[in-house]
Design goal:
There is one protein chain. This protein has 278 residues and is an alpha/beta fold. 33% of the residues lie in helices and 21% in strands. The chain has three domains: 9-57, no CATH class; 59-90; 94-271, Rossmann fold (3-Layer(aba) Sandwich), CATH 3.40.50. It is globular and about 60 Å long. InterPro entries: Peptidase_U57 (IPR008764).
Length: 278
């Protein structure tokens, strides 16, 4: 009988209890012992573990930590906005680009959608498992016709000796690659459709090669649940006559340049101004 159940919140003893996980699946190994599939509660990491390495957490205390985390994140975003205003780096008047956000996590999706709404960006959100994203992304692009699409959820490197240049070493990266390929069949022009794809430790190079503008994770590190929305907010609110560098976007995120990379990308704000601000 399993010591843990689907929905339990746990930490891993071998990793210093550093990340809260929720158990999403239970399978037995060849010896008949349960192996638990884990998804990060506040980060976009997926992993698996035996029961001996797990400690169950008090949901009430976890929720308190979660609220503190979200509050700090929101405060940091507000501080960034105030800093831009202080130095005269205000958003140009006009209509921001629209965003289609496809996420395997309903909770993360809600957090990101709230961020878009706070930034007054039109957005469309759908919860879809990573494995199903390649089969639905084109239909959703045709339905909503967004300027920007986010393809995200959870990911992670598999245990053991892994080849960082093989999709087989990643838990869900192949689905992000396939989804980007399908999205580019809809719109090949990277200046007309901006694509962000990936999650924690994702195969960055393969996702970029498939046609994404931005992806995670160049340094195979964990990324924050809000990082994809921070990247796409920047794209949506940058004048369409200007280009965004990967560095300028990555520095706005918690994970930085080791977590987010990409290519120079045109903004998607349709400005009312006749000339660029210098």
């Amino acid at each position: 009988m399993s010591d843990f159940n689907i929905g339990d919140i746990v930490v891993r003893k071998s990793y210093g209890k550093d990340i809260y996980f929720i158990i999403t699946e239970i399978n037995n190994n060849n010896d008949g012992n349960p192996i638990y599939t884990l998804r990060g509660l506040l980060t976009r990491i997926e992993a698996d573990s035996s029961g001996v390495d797990l400690l169950k957490q008090n949901p009430r205390l976890v929720d308190q930590d979660k609220q503190k985390f979200l509050q700090k994140t929101q405060q940091a975003l507000v501080a960034q906005s105030l800093s831009r205003r202080l130095y005269g780096i205000n958003r140009s008047p006009g209509r921001p680009g629209s965003i289609l956000h496809i996420d395997s996590s309903k909770e993360f999706l809600d957090i990101c959608v709230n961020h878009y709404k706070h930034s007054k960006i039109d957005c469309f959100g759908h919860t879809v498992a990573e494995s199903q994203q390649p089969s639905i992304v084109r239909e959703m692009l045709e339905r909503y016709k967004p300027d920007i699409v986010v393809l995200t959820g959870h990911d992670g490197l598999k245990k053991g000796d892994v080849d960082l240049k093989s999709l087989d070493s990643y838990r869900t990266s192949r689905y992000f690659v396939q989804s980007v390929v399908e999205a580019r069949k809809y719109e090949p022009d990277k200046n007309k459709l901006c694509i962000f794809a990936g999650a924690c430790q994702s195969y960055f190079e393969a996702i970029i090669k498939a046609g994404a503008n931005f992806a995670s994770s160049p340094g195979r590190i964990l990324i924050d649940c809000l990082d994809p929305s921070i990247v796409c907010e920047k794209v949506a609110t940058t004048d369409s006559r200007m280009f965004i560098t990967p560095w300028s976007v990555a520095r706005l995120t918690k994970s930085g340049t080791k977590g987010i990379g990409g290519i120079n990308t045109r903004g998607h704000l349709k400005s009312a101004r006749n000339s660029l601000r210098t």
